[in-house]
Every structure is written in C-alpha cells, then in structure tokens.
Amino acid sequence: RGGACARGGGGKMASTAAGKQRIPKVAKVKNKAPAEVQITAEQLLREAKERELELLPPPPQQKITDVEELNDYKLRKRKTFEDNIRKNRTVISNWIKYAQWEESLKEIQRARSIYERALDVDYRNVTLWLKYAEMEMKNRQVNHARNIWDRAITTLPRVNQFWYKYTYMEEMLGNVAGSRQVFERWMEWQPEEQAWHSYINFELRYKEVDRARSIYERYILFRALALLVLVHPDVKNWIKYARFEEKHSYFAHARKVYERAVEFFGEEHMDEHLYVAFAKFEENQKEFERVRVIYKYALDRIPKQDAQNLFKNYTIFEKKFGDRRGIEDIIVSKRRFQYEEEVKANPHNYDAWFDYLRLVESDTGAETVREVYERAIANVPPIQEKRHWKRYIYLWINYALYEELEAKASPFSDAERTRQVYQACLELLPHKKFTFAKMWLLYAQFEIRQKNLPLARRALGTSIGKCPKNKLFKGYIELELQLREFDRCRKLYEKFLEFAPENCTSWIKFAELETILGDIDRARAIYELAIGQPRLDMPEVLWKSYIDFEIEQEEYEKTRSLYRRLLQRTQHVKVWISLAQFELSAGQQERLPRCRQVYEEANKAMRSCEEKEERVMLLESWRSFEEEFGTQATKERIDKLMPEKIKKRRKLQAEDGSDAGWEEYYDYIFPEDTANQPNLKLLAMAKLWKKQQQESEAAAVDPDKDIDESQT
C-alpha cells in the first residue's frame, strides 16, 4: 500500500508539475518605450552569418562493407526518389537526378526506364532528351543514342540543338554519309541561316566543293522564295555565296552570283552592301572600269540617305586608283545628293536651288542643267507678295543668262530658248499686284543684243502700259538716249512726269536733256513747271538745280529773283548762306556790300526763329566772311553780335506723365534780343552777389591761420 501511495503521490505531483508547465508565466513589460539603441533585421542576419549559426555540420560518411548493406542503401535511396516523383511528377529535375544516380551505379537499364517514364510525363522537355542521349553516348551505346536522336528530331524538329548534336555525333563516329543524311533531313524543314552554313562547312571540311555549291544554290533559291513576301530583303547570303566562290578561286562563278543578286533584287530593294561587295570583288580582280560602273550605277539609284557607305568606299577607290577628275566627280556627286535632299525637303528653299544649279552648271551637260532649272522654276511662291518672289525671280534670270551665254547649242537655238524663258517669266508675274522692272529691262537688253530693236521697244512699252514704274521709265529713256532718239526721250519724259509729277529727279534730268540739246528756254520752262508743282519729293534739290542752271547761263538777276522766290517759301539758314555766297561769287564791284546786306537781312529774319543753332550758324558764316573781307569795325560789330553759350537745366517727363528727372542743355543768349536783357542783368547781379559773399567769408576768417586752412 505504501508503494501504491507513493506511486499515487508521485502521479499527483507529476500532474501538478505538468499543469504548471502548461500555463507558463507571461512577463509583464512595464516600460514599453523603444530602446535607445535599435537593431535591424540586416544586422541580425549579418551577426548570424559572422557567428555561423546557420551552418549545419556535414553528414557523417558511411562505409558500405557488404552486399546486404548496399542493397539496403539502394532500397532506401530508390524509395526516396520514388517518393519525390510521386509528390510532383512534373518536376523533371527529380527524374534526371534519379536517372543519373542509377547511371552512377551502372544500372543503365534502370536509368533508361526512368528516362522513358519521364518522357511519358513531358516529352517536350529538351533537357530530358539531351540528358538521355548523352547517357547513351557516354556509355558507348551508339545505336541506342541514334534511336533517341531519331525520336527527338521526329518529335521536336524545330529544336536545332538536337540536329547539331546528332550530326556532330555521326561525324565524330566517322559516319560522314549518315551525318549528310541527317543534314538533308534537317534541310527539308527549311531551318535558319546558321543551319545551312553548318551544312556547307561540313561539306567543305571534306573538300566537297561541288556539294557545297549545290547547297548554296538550294539555300539561295529557298531564301529568294521566302523573301518575296518581305519588305526589306537581306543580301548577306548572296554575298556569302559569292565570297565562297571567290575563296575557292571560281571567280567567274562569283561574278555570276553577284550579277544574279543584282538582277534578283532589282531597283526596288537595292542595298548598298551588295554593290560595295561586288565592287570590292572587281577591285580585287583589277577590273577598275567595272568598279566605276558598279559604283555609279548604284549611286544613281539608291536613296541618298542609304548610300553613305557607298560614297565612302567609292571615294577611297578613286583616291587609290583614280585620277583627279574621278575624285572630283565623286565629290560633286555627293554634293548633288545633298542638294537633292535639301530641295526635296523644302522645294521653296531657293538658296539651295541656287547652290545646286551652280554645281550642275560647272559639271554637267546642258540638258541636265535645263532639267534642274525647270524643276526649280516650277516651285512658284504660294503667296502673291513681292517679298516672297524676290529670290524666286533670280532663278528665271539665271536660267535666261545660262541659255544665252553658256548653253552648248547653236546660236539661233540659244536666242530662241532665251526669248522663251523671258516671255514665260513675264507671263507668270502678276503685274496687277507687282512686277519686276529688272526682268523687263533684261529682256529689252537681250533683244537689243540680238539686233531686234522693235521687240525691245515693244517689251518696254508693254511694261509701261501694264505696270508703270520709275525704274522702267528710266531704263527706257536711257535706252533711247543711247540710240540718240531725243524726240522719243521727250515723249517718254512727258509720260514719266504725267505718271509721277512729284519726282524731282525726273524734272531735273528732263531739263538737263534740253540744256544739252541747247534749248535753254525749254529747259527754263521745265524748271518753272517743276517748281510750280504742289507736291515734290525733294524740292531743295530741284531749286538748287534751277539756281545752278541760271548761274551757268550767267543770268544773275534771274538767279537773285529765284533766291527771293525761294526765301518767300522758306527762311532756312542754308538758303541765306547760299545767297550770300552767290553774291560774293557774282564777280561784280558791289559784291561785298551786297553780301553784307544779305547777312544783315538774314540776321533780322532769323531773330524770330526758334532754332537758335541756325542763327548761330548764320553768324559764324558772317564772321568768316568778315574775317576774310571785312574791316576792323565790321569785325568788332560781328563779335558783338555773337551769342553767349550757357548751360541750363530742364525737367523731363516720361510718356505716362511721371517725372523723369532733369536734363542739362546749352542755350544761346544773343545781345540783340531785348527780351533777354533783363535776364542778362539779373545774371550779372547774381554773379556780383556771389563775389561779395566770398569776400565777406574771407574777411571773417582768423588772419593768424594759414591761408590754405582758411580756404579749406
């Protein structure tokens, strides 16, 4: 009983201890504030790695000593592998590990069984087929390996790795025919480019050049059919084929391949790489003329932006084997392509057309130049405003001059073509809105050079009738003057002055013409009509010309009368000075008193003038006259009339009316102006007061001090 009690008491204590273990004490956290030093997960991982807490000790090595232990080990490993496979059949790595383990035990039949089971699960897995075939090859099971490769390429014919491995195995076994047969089966599937080249290289390794050529032919034919549906076909396969022929010294075959490629691609899919390779092949064969023909043919047809490499190689070729003319031709051709791109991008860029035309005129024939000119003048400005036509009209002018001076046709043909150019241009211009006098005058001058005066006059008459302009009248009059047709000149001047009566230059030229012809009265009448016009653009020039005309005729009284009439219209200081100089140069006995009298009148008239600078100019001219021709009394008198120059300030205002500060300016005070006398007296009194102030300040200073200090 005691033992039972003891056992009973022990059971009670055990249950009590178990109850205590079931309810662990939870520590109460009183301070829930974050610790001062924080630790991150990265630090925890780093410390764990440093202390090697996660490293497990390697498993102990077992040594199998008898067959039973080995069988037991195999059973356990196979059970483990089978369990893994049952858990997830689709994980192929488990199957491969299982098969490789069986292979390591030399259990080839079991390994085959595992691979076959794996293929039943996923026959599309490339790695599985490769491992299976490698196992058979490693164990020298050649027929089994062939069987596996056959099954692989039949099941997955688009996996190139199977074909490469299969052909390589057959070639390593020395079975060239078998390898060729595999390649043929592969080519039936029309593989990628590298597969064909592998087949070609295989044949070349065994010196089968004819077979390699036939493979190239089949491949090119296949690619040609395939590329018919492509937008941008590739030429590198043709180039490789040609280089293959060249490498084996079949130069005629290589040239034929290049020619077939050029013919196949045509002008729609031209590629500069094909022509560069073709040219380099001919260059290696020393066929330099063929090279030039190839480059020029390609440059004329390939778009400019795609021919940069072609240009570069052509330039290098000409530098190596060409002369100076050939190098210049390629440079000119490159510049032509650049200009073509510019005018294609912006047809109304007339500066680009000028540069392009200058280039083709210096290097090409007349027909090419005419074609470019026709393309250029076809780009008419879209807006009928003269500023948009100013550059365009020079295309027509240059075209006409080229046809007249530089075209290499017969003289009659040149003149007729030039006339057609001028007439087409004049018909194109919108004369009701604007015209170009230059074009009419150039046409008239051209007809005169052709000794066709009626057509020249007709053209200028038409221009004046359609669109009269000052320049047209002047050009027509100048033409008639050169022909000494003075009656026609008079009629033209009359028409000109009816069109523009305010043009002073026309009146002067008309009067000068009559003067040259000796009709003085007619010239004077023209001047009188001119100064009587209500509106003139340069009246001072007209009056000066009239006065000079009367002086040349030595009509001094009429000249004085003209000056007086002019002074009635304007009191400008230059008119007075000019009158005074005229009186001085008249050459009469009373010239000095007359000149002095003019200055006196001018001085009186200029007193009321607001522009004091003009009055000062008059007095300075008068003083110069007196210094040269006057007496001492007259010199003193003019010195008394000279003004005093003083500096003044005036207030400025901005455009919005706000204060803009002060401005200093110079003013002139004339002694004769009685209105300014009180101001002068006040100024003198102010100066006297300032002087007295300075003297009183000097007297108040201590006399014992130094003079410099007192002044300071």
From TrEMBL:
DNA-binding recorded as keyword: no
Pfam families: HAT_Syf1_CNRKL1_C (PF23231)
A cellular component term, taken from the record's GO annotations: post-mRNA release spliceosomal complex
Signal sequence coordinates: none
Annotated Gly residues bias: 1-12
Region named Disordered: 1-22, 693-712
Localization annotation: Nucleus speckle
InterPro entries xref list: HAT (IPR003107), HAT_Syf1_CNRKL1_C (IPR055430), Syf1-like (IPR045075), TPR-like_helical_dom_sf (IPR011990)
Main location: nucleus
Transport recorded as keyword: no
The entry's keywords: mRNA processing, mRNA splicing, Nucleus, Phosphoprotein, Repeat, Spliceosome
Protein name: Crooked neck-like protein 1
Natural source organism: Tychaedon coryphoeus (Karoo scrub-robin)
Protein encoded by which gene: Crnkl1
